[in-house]
Design a protein that fits this description.
Layout: E1 6-7, E2 22-27, E3 30-35, E4 41-42, H1 46-55, H2 69-94, E5 99-102, H3 115-118, E6 119-121, E7 128-130, H4 132-154, H5 161-175, E8 178-181, H6 193-211, H7 223-233, H8 242-271, E9 273-281, E10 287-295, E11 298-306, H9 314-328, E12 333-338, H10 342-354, E13 359-362, H11 364-376, H12 379-396, H13 399-408, H14 421-434, H15 436-443, H16 446-449, H17 457-467, H18 469-492, H19 503-518, H20 521-539, H21 543-550, H22 552-555, H23 560-577, H24 581-595, H25 604-609, H26 615-622, H27 627-637, H28 655-659, H29 663-686, H30 702-709, H31 773-776
Parallel strand pairs: 9-12, 12-13
Antiparallel strand pairs: 1-2, 2-3, 3-4, 5-8, 6-7, 9-10, 10-11
Length: 778
C-alpha cells in the first residue's frame, strides 16, 4: 500500500500546529496522515485525531509514546484551549444576562437612572435601593486595591519593581471598569468584538510599556495560554505576588526545565550530542561562556560561567570543558564546538587527548563570518558598502522618504539583518540589488522630484548613487560572489536540519561558483585564498568530510577519485568515535554495501529518498541491514557545525548574575537565566512565523543594522520632520524562509576545489589592490 501513497505538500491554509508533527499522503481520493514520531498511519479522523494522539488524550484512540514531552504539553494546551472556547460558547447560549466590564466613558449616562442597573425605585419615591451585585463588585475592588497597596509597600525598588508595576497597572485598569448587565439594559449597546479586542490590546500595551518589556514578549509561546488562563479564571482572580514569583513559581519552573533536560539524555544516547560553547563579551570586560547541548530534536542551555579570569589560561579552560563533558557523559559527546582562537585550539587539543572518543571542532559559522569580514576589506567592495549605507541611512532617518520607498517596494524593506555585522553587509547589498527597478522608479518619480528632501545634499547624493549603473553592476557582482558564502553560513546555523551532512558540499559549491564567476585563475584565486586562510582549521577536522561521505544525496553523485580522498577522513572518525575494534571492523565491511548500493540501499524507495529525506532519517529507515554503519552514520549526521544559538539572548540579563554581590541572589538569578534560556530555545520550534517579519528600526536588530540605519551628517533635517508617528505602518512583508541545503545540486568532480594547499597563509595586502575590471566585464 505504501507504494501507492503520494506525499502531499502543506498549503498556507493548514494553520493548525499539529500539521508540523505529521506527514500527509494521498491514497486515491483519501488523505492520510502519519505521526512523525511513532510512524502510526491515520486513515481518517482529520488533524484533530492526530493532535489527540500526540497530546495523549485517553479515550480518543492510541497515544504516541515517542513524542517529546514539550510537544505533548504544548498540544495539550492547544486542545484545552479549544475545549474551553467550546464550553464558553455553550455557556453563553444558556446565560441570559452576561456581565460586561466597561470603562465609565462607555456607559450611557441614562443608565445611572435605570431601575435595572442602579437598584429598585419605589413608586413615587426618589430613594433608590442599591443593586446588590454592584455592591459586591465594588467591595471586591476595594479589597483588591487594599491588598495592592500593602503589596506595593513591600516591593523592592530595583529589580523587584517590575512585579509591583504589574500589580499597579492591573489594579488601575480594574478600577476603571464598571460591571453592567448588558442584556437587561436597553440603553447600552454591547461593544463589538473589534472594540473589545482593541480595549484588551490597549491594556496589554499599557502593561508592557509600564514594565519596560521588549515587544518581542507578545511572540512568546506562553503569551496566549496566559491570556486564556485569565479568561477561564474569570473576574477577581488574584495575580501572583512578588514572593510567589521569586519563590514557588520560579522553583517549579526550574524543576520543569531540569526534568526536560533529563529526558533529553535519552536522545543524546541515541544520536550523540554536541557541546556548544558560546562566548559573550560585555562592555565592562566581563567574559561569559554559555554551554549548550545540541541534538536534532532540541537544543538545551546547560549553564553559564564567568570566564574572565580563566579565558587566557589553556589549562583552566581545558578543566572547565572537561567538567562539562563529565556532566553530560563522555559516551554521548561527539564534538565540542568553540570559536577558532588560539586558547580554544590548545584547550581543544588537550580535551581530545583526554577523551579519545570525541572531537574539538572550530565553529564553522564563525569561520565563514571571518571570511565575509575579510571580503568586506577588499577595496572595491568596501567602497560599494559605504555607497549603499549612505542610501539606506538617508531613507531610514526621514519618515517621508521611508514612506515613499515603501510605496514603491510594496511595503518591503531594503535592509536585511543577519546574525552578524559582516553577514548583514552582504545580505543587505543583495536585498538592495533585488529592488533596483523599484528604487530607480522612486528617484525618477514626480513624488520624489516634488519632495523637499530631493533638494538636500543627502537626497541629491542618494539620487546619483541609485542612478549610477556602475554601482548596480558592482552590486550584481557582489551578490553572485557572496551569496554562496552566505548560504554556507545559513546552512551551518540551520535549525531545520543538522548541518554536518551539508557544510562540506556547501563550501564546495561556494568555491565552484566563484571560479565560474571570474573564470580566470588569477581573479578567483584571490577570493579562494581568503576562504582557505580562514577554513584551514576546519580542514584538519575530518567530521565535515565524513558527513559529506555518509550523506547519500551527495555520495552517489561524487567522482570516484574524490570519494577515495575523503575516505581517510571517514576512517579517522571510525577509529575515534567507535572505541570497540570489533565494531570498527564490522563498519568497514558494511561500508561496501553502502558504496555499491547493494540490497536495500539499491531499492527504488531508497534511491528516491536520497533527495527527500534527511540523511540521518534515511539511514534510520534503510540502514537496518548494516546496523553498525547505520548507527555510526546517524551519530555523525545528527550534529551541527556551529556554536551559535539564536534565541534573542540580548533580552536575557545574564550579566546581572555576576554583578550581584550576594550568593543567594546570584543563584536565584542563575535559575532565572536557566529557565529563560531554555524557554526561548524551546520556543524556536513552536512559535509562529510572524516574528520573521523584519522591523529594521527595532532595538533587537540594531546591533547588526546600526551602520545601515544610524544617522549621519547627511541625515540632519533641514525640511520636514522625522516624526515616527507619520510613518505609514501597513502590513509588513516577511523574509522568505528558504531551505538552502535543498539547492546544492549534484556532481562533485572538480579536484582543484578541495585540493589541500601545502601552504595557506595571508599575503600582506593581497586583497587591497584588486582591479576594477573584475566587475566591469560582468
Amino acid at each position: 500500500m505504501e507504494m501507492d501513497l503520494e506525499p502531499v505538500a502543506l498549503t498556507p491554509q493548514k494553520q493548525d500546529i499539529a500539521w508540523k508533527h505529521c506527514e500527509v499522503y494521498k491514497y486515491g481520493d483519501r488523505v492520510q496522515m502519519r505521526c512523525l514520531y511513532c510512524r502510526k498511519m491515520f486513515k481518517g479522523g482529520g488533524i484533530t485525531r492526530v493532535k489527540e494522539h500526540l497530546a495523549g488524550k485517553k479515550g480518543q484512540g492510541t497515544i504516541c509514546d515517542q513524542v517529546p514531552e514539550d510537544v505533548r504539553q504544548f498540544l495539550q494546551q492547544c486542545l484545552d484551549g479549544t475545549v474551553r472556547r467550546q464550553r464558553k460558547r455553550h455557556r453563553s447560549s444558556l446565560e441570559p444576562h452576561p456581565i460586561a466590564y466597561l470603562p465609565p466613558s462607555e456607559v450611557d449616562a441614562s443608565v445611572v437612572h435605570s431601575d435595572v442597573n442602579t437598584g429598585f425605585r419605589s413608586p413615587g419615591s426618589d430613594v433608590v435601593a442599591p443593586n446588590p451585585s454592584l455592591s459586591v463588585s465594588r467591595t471586591k475592588q476595594r479589597t483588591y486595591r487594599s491588598r495592592k497597596n500593602s503589596f506595593d509597600k513591600s516591593a523592592s525598588a530595583n529589580a523587584d519593581g517590575a512585579v509591583a508595576n504589574i500589580s499597579d497597572l492591573i489594579a488601575r485598569d480594574m478600577d476603571n471598569l464598571i460591571p453592567v448587565a448588558i442584556s437587561s439594559v436597553k440603553n447600552i449597546v454591547q461593544p463589538s468584538s473589534k472594540d473589545r479586542e482593541k480595549t484588551i490590546h490597549m491594556a496589554i500595551g499599557r502593561f508592557l510599556f509600564d514594565i519596560g518589556a521588549d515587544f518581542d514578549a507578545v511572540n512568546s509561546v506562553h503569551f496566549q495560554p496566559m491570556i486564556d488562563a485569565f479568561v477561564s479564571g474569570g473576574f477577581g482572580v488574584s495575580i501572583p505576588t512578588h514572593n510567589d514569583l521569586r519563590g514557588w513559581i520560579l522553583k517549579n519552573c526550574v524543576e520543569e526545565t531540569k526534568k526536560e533536560i533529563d529526558e533529553s539524555r535519552l536522545l543524546w544516547k541515541r544520536t550523540g550530542c554536541s557541546i556548544l560553547v558560546e562566548q559573550l563579551d560585555s562592555g565592562e570586560g566581563l567574559k561569559i561562556l554559555n554551554f549548550f547541548v545540541y541534538c536534532p530534536e532540541k537544543v538545551v542551555f546547560l549553564k553559564s560561567v564567568d570566564a574572565s579570569e580563566i579565558i587566557s589560561s589553556v589549562d583552566k579552560l581545558y578543566e572547565l570543558f572537561k567538567e562539562v563533558v563529565e556532566e553530560i557523559g563522555e559516551t554521548h559527546v561527539v564534538q565540542v564546538i568553540t570559536k577558532c582562537e588560539d586558547h580554544y585550539i590548545a584547550a581543544g587539543k588537550l580535551l581530545m587527548d583526554a577523551y579519545p572518543s570525541l572531537y574539538w571542532v572550530p565553529c564553522a559559522a564563525h569561520c565563514m563570518d571571518m571570511v565575509l569580514e575579510d571580503f568586506g576589506k577588499v577595496e572595491w567592495i568596501s567602497e560599494r558598502i559605504e555607497q549603499a549605507r549612505a542610501v539606506t541611512r538617508f531613507i531610514y532617518n526621514h519618515s517621508g522618504v521611508l514612506n515613499l520607498m515603501w510605496r514603491f517596494t510594496s511595503g518591503n524593506d531594503i535592509v536585511q539583518p543577519a546574525f552578524s555585522c559582516s553577514a548583514t553587509n552582504f545580505t543587505t547589498l543583495g536585498r538592495i540589488a533585488d529592488f533596483k527597478p523599484n528604487l530607480q522608479a522612486m528617484v525618477s518619480s514626480p513624488e520624489w522630484n516634488d519632495c523637499s528632501y530631493s533638494k538636500e545634499a543627502g537626497g541629491l547624493a542618494m539620487t546619483d548613487t541609485i542612478s549610477d549603473e556602475a554601482f548596480w553592476k558592482a552590486l550584481t557582482l557582489l551578490t553572485h560572489l557572496t551569496y554562496p558564502l552566505l548560504r554556507v553560513l545559513r546552512i551551518a546555523c540551520s535549525e531545520k536540519r543538522p548541518a554536518m551532512g551539508y557544510v562540506y558540499a556547501a563550501l564546495y559549491r561556494a568555491k565552484e561558483a566563484i571560479k565560474k564567476l571570474f573564470v580566470e585563475r588569477e581573479d578567483y584565486i584571490v577570493y579562494w585564498k581568503i576562504i582557505d586562510s580562514r577554513w584551514e582549521q576546519q580542514r584538519l577536522i575530518p567530521l565535515h568530510a565524513a558527513g559529506f561521505f555518509l550523506n547519500p544525496k551527495f555520495f552517489y553523485n561524487t567522482d570516484e577519485e574524490m570519494r577515495s580522498e575523503i575516505l581517510s577522513a571517514v576512517f579517522d572518525c571510525i577509529e575515534r568515535l567507535v572505541p570497540d575494534v570489533t565494531i570498527q571492523d564490522k563498519i568497514i565491511k558494511e561500508r561496501n554495501s553502502y558504496k555499491n548500493a547493494v540490497g536495500v540501499f539499491g531499492r527504488n524507495l531508497a534511491i528516491r529518498a536520497r533527495d527527500t529525506m534527511l540523511p540521518a532519517e534515511w539511514w534510520s529507515t534503510y540502514g537496518e541491514s548494516c546496523l553498525n554503519l547505520s548507527r555510526f552514520a546517524i551519530r555523525i549526521l545528527s550534529q551541527t557545525c556551529s556554536s551559535l544559538v539564536e534565541c534573542r539572548r540580548n533580552l536575557i540579563p545574564i550579566e546581572q548574575i555576576y554583578q550581584s554581590k550576594n550568593c543567594l541572589e546570584q543563584q536565584r538569578l542563575r535559575d532565572i537565566v536557566f529557565v529563560q534560556y531554555n524557554m526561548r530555545l524551546r520556543r524556536r520550534y513552536y512559535e509562529s512565523r510572524d516574528d520573521s517579519v523584519i522591523d529594521p528600526l527595532s532595538r533587537s536588530n540594531m546591533d547588526v543594522l546600526e551602520d545601515w540605519v544610524s544617522k549621519n551628517q547627511a541625515c540632519i533635517q533641514i525640511n520636514g520632520s522625522s516624526d515616527w508617528k507619520s510613518l505609514e505602518l501597513g502590513k509588513r512583508t516577511q523574509v522568505p524562509i528558504v531551505d538552502e541545503a535543498e539547492d546544492l545540486g549534484t556532481g562533485f568532480d572538480d579536484a582543484e576545489i578541495f585540493k589541500e594547499e601545502k601552504e595557506v597563509r595571508e599575503e600582506e595586502g593581497f586583497y587591497t589592490n584588486i582591479s576594477e575590471k573584475v566587475y566591469t566585464d560582468i
